[in-house]
Amino acid sequence: MNVHATSLSQGYGIRTEPLKGRVEVYRGNTLLAVTSRARVMYETRLPPTVYVPREDVLVRLGERSELQTFCPFKGTASYCDLLLEDERVENAAWTYENPLPESEGIRGHVGFMPGAYTHMDLGENELREDDPGHISGPLVDWLMRRASQIRSPEAFTLALAEKMLEHGIAVSRLGVMVWSLHPQIAGKHYIWEKGKTEISTYAPTYEVYDNPAYQNSPLRHVSNGLGGVRQRLNGDTTQDSFPIIGDLRARGATDYVAMPMPFSDGRTNVLTLTCDHPDGFTTANLGLVFECAAVIGRYYEVFTQAENARALLETYVGKRTGARVLGGDIRRGDGDDIDAAIMFCDLRGSTRLEEQMGRARYIALLNRFFETVSDIVHAHDGEVLKFIGDAVLAVFPNADTAETAQRNALNAATRIVSTLGQGTEGTPKLDCAIGIAYGQVTYGNVGSRERLDFTVIGQAANLAARLGDYGKSTRHRIVVSEDIRPVCGDCLSLGAVTLHNVTQPVSCYAIAA
């Protein structure tokens, strides 16, 4: 059986009552409205609001403006300007053209913004201030005491839904859409459905903005600041404003709400609730969620900030380096001495390509070069440390043995040369010069007090770059140091060569590629 539980705490409430006698609304000496049919709305935590019938407004009202606000108990409010003889007061009045059942009493009525009128003559009426009391119970207690112990948004979403059910809210489906800062995904959509023990998590790419399913969805409507959405799904006057409404009704849903869940940076995320109780959501239970939405949003904001930080660090400095920075290696000088193979991969003919292709096409080609090199480096247990102009600096740490790190670097280099040489339809084949050296380097933070760079410093890093330059000038695609020779197999000795900014001649080898 699915029933609404009765809360022992004072819940959220909303009611409208008629006022007695004549009520007048003024702006200075201008009479805006006069009526004997005014109504007052009392709503938890809000001051009493007086509404007058639209036909009793004495001044002109402008067309509906773009401003809309959402209330899960009253519906979506539409705003209009006051058009007076000597001034225009923007968004001064609002109406609920299709109020929700809890607020049917204000249909056809107009409310005035506090700054739109100077005084209101209530005649014999006296407005009461409601005692807001307090809202408590399983959901609030959990948010205040135990929710902070949860370490993932999926686990939080599951616990949130369970606490809503425990509190007596007849929720059958809960969704949270959180927008993110990520180079590939637009955000995360967490969905809980009653009867399932796991959360469904979707990570749409930025193409979602052009997808018809998103274009005609409550998520887009709310995220774009167009107000929230509430639709009863089991009445005679039901209307499917969005395709998902019909889908949910077919699955037995009776009520649907999509409300804004703003973050502190101004982004608007979305919290959606679907009900399966025959009477839909109660005002008290839905009011509880509405009151808790800001706190719920802060939890998701903390989760999202952690994910954003990890994603941005991985994007700009690499996965291993990002993990070290998040782990606390953030001071200048923090770092370790490690043994690693260092690769320096430089695109050949970049100046000529830019002149021939133009800046925009060249940037696209350069991105293709970086993506190819990065994917292959990562596939061989390496990490791209940085892009330097049209070159890539990568490190292959010595995790098991020196031979493993050396072989990973060499295999990656030969694969890079082969892949770039294949080209793609509509783009030219690419060529590169790669230098590889092995040795001990310092892997950590260097820079100024305000601007740090996580990189590798040491002779092996300098040597890899110089070997790449030497290969570029001698038309050898891969040139390696003496340390790499044991894993080379078929290679050509170049003898001891003099390299720029290297004091002693270096024995090196060219790899057939």
Automatic annotation (TrEMBL):
It comes from the Bacteria. InterPro entries: A/G_cyclase (IPR001054), Adenylyl/Guanylyl_Cyclase_3/4 (IPR050697), DUF427 (IPR007361), DUF427_sf (IPR038694), Nucleotide_cyclase (IPR029787). Residues 341-468 form the Guanylate cyclase domain. Pfam families: Guanylate_cyc (PF00211), NTP_transf_9 (PF04248). CDD domains: CHD. This is DUF427 domain-containing protein. It comes from Ruegeria aquimaris. The lineage of its organism: Bacteria, Pseudomonadati, Pseudomonadota, Alphaproteobacteria, Rhodobacterales.
